[in-house]
Amino acid sequence: MPFREVNSKMVEATVVPGQRMYSQRGAMLAYRGDVSFTPNIAGGQGGLMSMIGRRVADEATPLMTVEGSGTVMFGHGGHHIQVVGLEGDTLYVEADRLLAFDGTLEQGTMFMGSQGGVMGMVRGQVTGQGLFTTTLRGHGAVAVMAHGGVIELPITPGRPVHVDPQAYVAHHGDVRNKLSTALGWRDMVGRGSGEAFQLELSGSGAVYVQASEEKL
Amino acid sequence: MSGSDRERVHSGGACPHTHPAQYRHPVAMFRLQGSKVLAVDMTGDSVKAKNGSMVAYDGRMDFKKLTGGGEGLRGMVTRRLTGEQMALMEVKGQGTCYFADRASEINLVSLHGDKLYVESSNLLCTDGGLRTGTSFTGLRGGATGNGLFTTTVEGTGQAAIMSDGPAVVLRVTPPYPLSVDPGAYIAHQGDLRQQFQSGVTFRTLVGEGGGEAFQIRFEGDGLVYVQPSERNTVGGDV
């Protein structure tokens, strides 16, 4: 695990030669040793095609490559940071919530419509997350930002978890998500309970939920 | 006599833990997950929560807006007139429901037949059996910028209140009254009298005040919840 939590809003990463890391541009707070930061025009890994893919998908966040030897501290906007360890599975997260991640992880973009069909696309629109999301796969660690603290809720088969779309941060594992609606006539006349749309996650894995309904 | 009234008479203000047999209805279990997320375990019973404050749940839940905070027509009219608006929803079901609001710190309050006074904006969730209402606060409200009325929660059960930063609970006893900055006050419970006091002097009038011109003074026996942050108040500037 290259990330060490300094406090709830700062992480410290160890950089060794030959191993690169990616982080959100401008998220470095301090560093020790000989470390270089280069802006990454491609916005992450992959060649020209993945760069175009991310631009089209609007999942392109300004990233920078961190290389050298030393330790770097990351933090951004006073947001809480959750370190997620991946052991071969896939993490689904919005690109703007990514603070830093291991270079060994394989970065990709996923089309929401491929999971849940039309409802998946509706889901992206309703939650304001767009039609695409970022995936990270492999062995390594990811630092994810959230407003307020984060709780991890396990998802087991036969026991789905429902999440408020605005409080959803990320999920990993073999999880299917779909948008479930509880729209009634009350919502139509403006007397809804404020919980008309929910994200239903089923399968096996875990979902990260933040203690706030504010987007970053 | 309605069901909730009967239950209240049975428990008679005593601690509910000593009389478990008298609880006929299953009671929602409140617990904190971290300091900013409230988890409520429910088995078919209901809780009242701030509109839109659910962040996640497992099991099966129903959400219904309570028009007028479930206080009936009279309560609804009172809330409209006093401006102490409160949008509540009723959550009912089986499973665990998680509540949070704008990353505020959450404090659990147990009520044993006594009354909790709290600003409606600081109330997150209450047990389904508790009754809510409005009461007049007097001059204090004007200085806190919260209006002249406040929300009361009454009965036996648990409630969750929110604060900006972790709240401290200060005990007030007859020989030791307490003065609180109106901007940092969030709630109080017990048999307390409150009094508005001002330290406006010649210096304040010429713009050289210490920024602490107004305080609320609590006397009696009870608890006061204070947050480590100050809202913008009229009195805060002078």
General description of the model:
The complex is a heterodimer of chains A (216) and B (238). Chain A is mainly beta. Chain A has one domain (3-210): Double-stranded beta-helix. Chain A contains 3 helices and 13 strands; from the N terminus they run E-E-E-E-H-E-E-E-E-H-E-E-E-E-H-E. In chain A, strands 1, 2, 3, 4, 5, 6, 7, 8, 9, 10, 11, 12 and 13 form a 13-stranded antiparallel beta sheet that branches. In chain A, strand 1 (3-7) and strand 2 form a beta hairpin. Chain A is globular, with a radius of gyration of 18 Å. The two termini of chain A are 26 Å apart. The model of chain A has no long low-confidence stretch (mean pLDDT 81). Chain B has 238 residues and is mostly beta strands. Chain B has one domain (3-237): Mitochondrial biogenesis AIM24 (Double-stranded beta-helix), CATH 3.60.160. Helices cover 13% and strands 50% of the residues of chain B. Chain B has 4 helices and 12 strands. Chain B has helices at 3-11, 72-82, 139-144, 202-205, and strands spanning 29-33, 37-50, 54-66, 88-99, 105-118, 123-127, 131-136, 149-163, 168-172, 178-180, 185-198, 214-226. In chain B, strands 1, 2, 3, 4, 5, 6, 7, 8, 9, 10, 11 and 12 form a 12-stranded antiparallel beta sheet that branches. In chain B, strand 1 and strand 2 form a beta hairpin. The termini of chain B are far apart. The chains are: A mainly beta (216), B mainly beta (238). The A-B interface holds A 147-149, 151, 153, 159-164, 167, 182, 186, 191-195, 207, 209-214 and B 33-37, 51-59, 61-65, 67, 87, 89-90, 98, 100-103. Strand 11 of chain A pairs antiparallel with strand 3 (54-66) of chain B, so a sheet runs across the interface.
